[in-house]
Amino acid sequence: MIVKVGKVTNLSDARYCAGMNVDLLGFVTVENQESYLPPKEFQDIRGWLSGPQIVAEIYGLSSASELADIIDNYKPDYLELSEKELPLVDGSLPLIVRWSKGEFDKAMDIPNLYALIVDKTQLDNIGDTKIKIKLLVEAENLNEVEAVTNRPAVKGIVLNGTQEESPGLKDYDHLSEILERLEVE
């Protein structure tokens, strides 16, 4: 089961997730987006990490030159985006696409597609055996995780980090219950 934690904004979340063997850590890399992490702060966090691969969350991207700067400053392993940003990417990195359309066959035409993030309600519209794409489902709590992880088409879950109360002071309840359960399985 692939585990991605996105919207990471602090070293506490990043280190906790790395210690819990999270596969992918996502950082909002487009200015003026909620949870944006400037390159300098990202570099400070990345210097402390070992293990997870880095995902540049590029929702709201406005140009190919902006993408080039993000790739240069963040050096991500993956790009995460919605269908709106697809025309701006060049296929140089694997893509994680938030898919809002129900037509999964059309996603097969996306170059360098690694995975699709889908809403859990979309799972009811597909047959588990005909999907050949990695589907990741966003979850907010353990009940949601348990409801989707038993589906053969689901290859992973997407969780989100939260803000620190103050540097080093962090409540991990929102992640720990889920990550500990997944670690046991």
3D architecture notes:
InterPro entries: Aldolase_TIM, RibuloseP-bd_barrel. Keywords: Isomerase. This is N-(5'-phosphoribosyl)anthranilate isomerase. It comes from Chryseotalea sanaruensis. Helices cover 28% and strands 22% of the residues. The chain contains six helices and eight strands, in the order βαβαβαββαββαβα. The chain has helices at 11-19, 39-46, 64-74, 104-107, 142-149, 173-184, and strands at 2-6, 24-28, 53-57, 78-82, 95-98, 113-118, 135-138, 154-160. It has an eight-stranded parallel barrel with strand order 1-2-3-4-5-6-7-8. The longest helix has 12 residues, at 173-184.
Q: Short description, anyone?
A:
By secondary structure, this protein is an alpha/beta fold.
Which descriptors apply to this entry?
single chain, 185 residues, alpha/beta, TIM Barrel, 8 strands, Aldolase_TIM, isomerase, N-(5'-phosphoribosyl)anthranilate isomerase, RibuloseP-bd_barrel, isomerase activity
SSE topology:
Elements: E1 2-6, H1 11-19, E2 24-28, H2 39-46, E3 53-57, H3 64-74, E4 78-82, E5 95-98, H4 104-107, E6 113-118, E7 135-138, H5 142-149, E8 154-160, H6 173-184
Parallel strand pairs: 1-2, 1-8, 2-3, 3-4, 4-5, 5-6, 6-7, 7-8
Q: What is the count of β-strands?
A: 8
Radius of gyration from the CA trace?
16 Å
Helix content: 25-40%
pLDDT < 50 stretches: none
CATH class: Alpha Beta
Determine the CATH topology: TIM Barrel
Overall structural class, as computed from helix and strand content, comes to: alpha/beta
Report the β-strand fraction as a percent range.
15-25%
The biggest sheet amounts to: 8 strands, parallel, barrel
Q: How confident overall, as mean pLDDT?
A: 88
CATH architecture: Alpha-Beta Barrel
Q: Please tell me what the overall shape is.
A: globular
Q: Quickly count the domains.
A: 1
Keywords: Isomerase
Protein name: N-(5'-phosphoribosyl)anthranilate isomerase
GO molecular function, one term: isomerase activity
